[in-house]
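Aim 2, interim progress: modelling of the zinc ion-bound target.
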Amino acid sequence: MDNNIVWHNYATTKVQRSEQKKHKSAIIWFTGFSGSGKSTVANALEAALNQQGAHTYLLDGDNVRHGLCKDLGFSDADRVIDATGKLVLPGGIEGHCHIEQKSSVGGVMSADDFFTGTRSAVFGGTTTTLSFAQQIPGESLRKTVQDYHECARPKAVIDYGFHLIISDPTEQVLGQDLPALVADGMPSFKVYMTYDSLKLDDHQMLDVLATARQHGAMVMIHAENHDMIRWLKERLLQGGYVAPKYHAISHVELAEDEATHRAIRLSELIDVPILIVHVSASEAMAEIRRAQTAGLKVYGETCPQYLFLTASDLDRDGAEGAKFCCSPPPRDAAHHDVIWRGLANGTFQVFSSDHAPYRFDETGKLAAGPNPTFPQIANGVPGIELRLPLLFSEGVGKGRISIHQFVALTATNAARIYGLLPRKGTIAIGSDADIAIWDPEKEITVAWDLLHDNVGYTPYEGRKLTGWPVTVLSRGRVAVENGELKVERGSGKFLPRYLSDAARPLGRLVKEMDVDRNFGADIGPLSQ
Ligand code: DUC
Ligand code: ZN
Ligand code: ZN
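Predicted structure of the complex, ligand included:
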């Protein structure tokens, strides 16, 4: 069979379709790449074929346009996947999810383990997860990480890595454990500015930032002002305002604005890049934008809950609002447009789910009883499977972002920032054949029954979406096809990550940290 690969972008799909009729044969649609068509197509094909055990074959017709396919010798491919009229995109990278982890409020276990969590991810077009290994204060961080490895190894169906959550930055942790774990392929840490059990004060934050700078790690920051939240929480409880909706009041927007500003200033003092996670509101986003305009390496992440949910969702009957309690909480609808703008204008580099799944029963959201007060509710919403379909349907489908931005936000940028490119997040020579084939016209109405997590509900129930990843490949293995999981538990592999350029300091010290301008005081991060 002759081979014909048409490389073009989504905007020209219609033109390409008429050509497709002429060829009367299967065409794989490549899109979302930068670079010249010629090298991209060649790269993509070789990448697919280079995978051990790959069964990916992107075939048909006679592509005279680039004259490449025959040279690559596809005629003896084992199998053809017909992607006529589909989009062939890199598998998503989920850069922020909580799997087999206890909640910071109430200490309840997440609903998803590494089997159900990664299964749900891959059905939604994601082929890599980066979840958290959370330090237990008083316990060795290395032991904690070992435990997460043991949980993930026998269960994950796709490849995975870990970020580290630092809640107790002791000398041992900063001086021994973190450097060793960075060297073992975990060059990213998350720190919290709120939660009694996790919060670091500014001094501790500076210590972690300086350690990250020294070892080339990326610091992810949960930015909310703890004392504002704590004070409001106390006042609300004293007044008898205990329903789930008051969670959104206690986690006031100003707390996120202020902490985002502070986190940026702390990172500027150390001259180390940071990534502000789960940005929910316009002023926090504006802080990030201002820092970027000033040339700082400040990255931003947002999530589906800040585009599709609002604070009013927490005001549902009875305890139902608990399903929507996450931190920061969903804001008013007015913020949605601003967050969309931040996705389109590059303020946000990554779009993650922050999948933090708790069942709506006594094992999860209702662990404190059928009518918990808002501070008793585990914080988090599920979203690992719908992350890409939501963004595709409402972003690409409605013209808010381009297909190229979609790929960057859901895969390539996370790979770049977290040290996985070019192995993951792209289709290129030598890259893993992690590929999602999307039917851009498939319509679905979201129902939890269609999903593959273990949560029991979805906050997006009833939403109508257009576009779905119908076939998903992980390292060249068909992982999802015809609505079925085709890969085994435990077949996912741990991904050691390298130091990313995104985490490299600017080399721009504020004058008080610069030995040449601070009366000779050798105190700066460069002196270590
Ligand atoms: N932060 C997260 O990143 N996930 C769940 C809860 C939280 O506060
Ligand atoms: Zn957080
Ligand atoms: Zn999270």
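Residues 222, 277-278 surround zinc ion (ligand 2) (CB under 6 Å). The longest strand covers residues 435-445.
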